[in-house]
TrEMBL record:
Organism of origin: Anaeromyxobacter oryzae
UniProtKB keywords: NAD, Oxidoreductase
Similarity comment: Belongs to the UDP-glucose/GDP-mannose dehydrogenase family.
Keyword match Oxidoreductase: yes
Residues of the UDP-glucose/GDP-mannose dehydrogenase C-terminal domain: 338-436
Superkingdom, taxonomy of origin: Bacteria
Entries under NCBIfam families matching the protein: NDP-sugDHase (TIGR03026)
Protein known as: UDP-N-acetyl-D-glucosamine dehydrogenase
Pfam families cross-referenced by the UniProt entry: UDPG_MGDP_dh, UDPG_MGDP_dh_C, UDPG_MGDP_dh_N
InterPro entries, sorted: 6-PGluconate_DH-like_C_sf (IPR008927), NAD(P)-bd_dom_sf (IPR036291), UDP-Glc/GDP-Man (IPR017476), UDP-Glc/GDP-Man_DH_C (IPR014027), UDP-Glc/GDP-Man_DH_C_sf (IPR036220), UDP-Glc/GDP-Man_DH_dimer (IPR014026), UDP-Glc/GDP-Man_DH_N (IPR001732), UDP_ManNAc/GlcNAc_DH (IPR028359)
Amino acid sequence: MIEPQPILQASHLLSRLADRTARIAVVGLGYVGLPLALTFSRRGGLRAVGIDVDPEKPRLLDAGKSYLRTVDAADVAEAVDGGKLQATTDFARAAACDAVVICVPTPLTREREPDLTYIERTGEALAPHVRPGQAVVLESTSYPGTTEEVLLPILERGSGLRAGRDFFLAFSPERENPGSGVATHTIPKIVGGYTPACLEAALALYGSSFDRVVPVSSTRVAEMTKLLENVFRSVNIALVNELKMLCHRMGMDVNEVIDAASTKPFGFMPFQPGPGLGGHCIPIDPFYLTWKARQYEFQTRFIELAGEVNTDMPRYVIHRTMEALNERGRTLKDARILVLGIAYKKDVDDMRESPAVRLIELLQERGAQVVYHDPYVPRVPRMRQHRLDMVSVPLTDDALATADAVLIATDHSTIDYARVVDRSRLVIDTRNACRAVRVGREKIVKA
């Protein structure tokens, strides 16, 4: 860390946070940014300004509507009507704010390398509006060093100010878990500052609205903390996915094994297998760390192996589907396949990096006729990761009965799986969604 002259003091920002007169800008109003803006406005009593390049989001928010299933429209309307939340596409509005929090995507390129385009463009758009005494916090997940090596020079060059001397700079990893029902403010907030004064300012910012704030020694430590959390999940999910394939060959049910192991009160944490990894974090974040590690001539073999296992899971599911159809005198080519769930996890409308997309692509490549049903994703949105153009079909008795196989890719709670099994010829269950179904188990094939 480069320590500028300790001229900057956080007292002004702290006083405005304390008397609830502070205004907070949140850039990026997606699954992370919108709940965060509402946390600042509703929990902290602060005035929040949401900024997004998509004009549809500010339009809906200003009308008191929510475009995310995981965010209650009543909460949005309350914040907007009370003057605690405004939304805009104008980055110049950040100049009147005491703090700016950046929550933009950090995807991968086609070569599976970090794509920091959104952070860079956001920094360039904000830089002319950064002012002395303002706090800027990055929440977007990235490799250790991003805040100081990428965002800092953009902000300093565009503003003519110095981080740590003229404005505060910090990193605080997002920890949203959509669909979990866990309130944002109850999740402990990790905070790392560019300087001690920057840390003090960021702690005060999040302390105004979160139950617990955890300081760390630098922005790099905070960035690495987020990666560790998601690498931990990726590695352990890969482990149970590999054991799932082994258990199948050995004639065992991996879910029964996991349930039995979960009775141990120490030294074990259960993870559940599936058709692959999805979402904006776990399938992506490990690649950020492996890419950065190569700059230090270090090979993250364990992490990369886990990535290979998880990436190959959709192919394993397709293989099991082919086997199950063959046993029933059918081939995958020209078979009618109904995929249940296209979101990346249960009870959400988010399909970023969803393994269901890859499953559909693989099925189509092999000549299957594929339709899908998802109560939360009525149409597959255009995304650069795929070329699918599909609309969700109703989950009727006829749709179930005429399918050669029903493939459960996402185990939404709203679906009656006993009915699915009863009406279907064959059910390929990748999520153990049918565990409670007792009648018709001969139709169920775990994959």
